[in-house]
Specification:
This protein is an alpha/beta fold. The chain is about 50% helix and about 15% strand. α1 crosses α6 and α5 packs parallel to α6.
């Protein structure tokens, strides 16, 4: 029984360490020039505007775009429970903030992080693009980067959205498990 408790404590410690490493990695922005910025989708508010969380991702992508870090912004999402196409809403927000339509790539088939990565990789291959920046929540940066790398995209850097909420206490451990699953199951 004592050995079992020790093992459980060790496992919990390793998991908490993973949570801490995920937060540090996600908050340690790496700015670089790239071919495009990948912005994974998230909740759209019932009125059709980006949720504060999604808006923070888009605002970070806007900052990177305005700093001329990449000439294209790849917005990816699907049809949410609210009845809105996340990618279309994201594109509308960016256009409303001065990004030309020609600089916005809309992926309405990004139903999850892996689909976003695969779709971004296919778009990039078709156009001879090689590098991407990631703009998402700090806890989502490592898994998004891993998914893109596994899909054949070189991740040049990332910036985390400046938005924190109580829900992050759930999201951080979930992302640790998601990273482990992606690491073990994707090729």
């Amino acid at each position: 029984m004592r050995l079992l408790k020790l093992f459980a404590a060790l496992l919990a410690g390793v998991f908490l360490l993973g949570c801490g490493l995920l937060v540090v990695a996600g908050c340690s922005d790496r700015h670089a020039d790239a071919d495009l910025i990948v912005v994974p989708g998230n909740t759209v508010a019932p009125d059709g505007r980006p949720s504060p969380r999604l808006q923070a991702r888009l605002d970070m992508a806007l900052a990177l775009y305005r700093d001329q870090r990449a000439p294209l912004i790849f917005v990816s999402g699907g049809l949410g429970r609210e009845g809105f196409d996340e990618a279309v809403v994201m594109a509308g927000y960016l256009a409303g903030n001065g990004v030309p339509a020609a600089a916005i790539v809309v992926d309405s088939q990004g139903l999850d992080t892996m689909a976003t990565a695969r779709n971004a990789a296919a778009f990039m291959r078709a156009r001879g693009l090689r590098t991407a920046l990631v703009a998402t929540q700090y806890f989502h940066v490592p898994r998004t980067g891993l998914a893109l790398e596994r899909a054949g995209v070189r991740v040049a850097g990332h910036s985390h959205a400046r938005y924190v909420e109580l829900r992050d206490l759930y999201s951080i451990p979930r992302e640790v498990l998601g990273c482990i699953a992606y690491f073990l199951t994707t090729a």
